[in-house]
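Quick one: structure for this chain?
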Amino acid sequence: MNANKVECLGKNIQFIRKEICHMTQLEFSESIHISIEQLQKIEQGKSLPSVPSLFAIADYAKVPVDLLAKDDINSSKLYSIIFLMKEIEKYNSIFIECTCDMLLTVYNKIRNS
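Got it. Here's what it folds into:
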């Protein structure tokens, strides 16, 4: 991975930590089980996270792993994508509940005909 991509990955992780998770480096590093020094190196673009750390970051922030590595995305786009994903997730259970209710209603109508 070239230096620009490593730096971009670090900036994306830093953005997610600050703007999405609202955490300090210490809080975030403890949450994903890496040292604060390692997180600092990652955010500065001096080091790549290990694969397990990358997945831990994505899992903790509830974002797809590939979104962390996007190098053609700016902070406002990244924030918008993550915001929309969280909104969809929030309403997904409501949608599933409505869909189940509708299917049950249709099933009962068919069964009673």
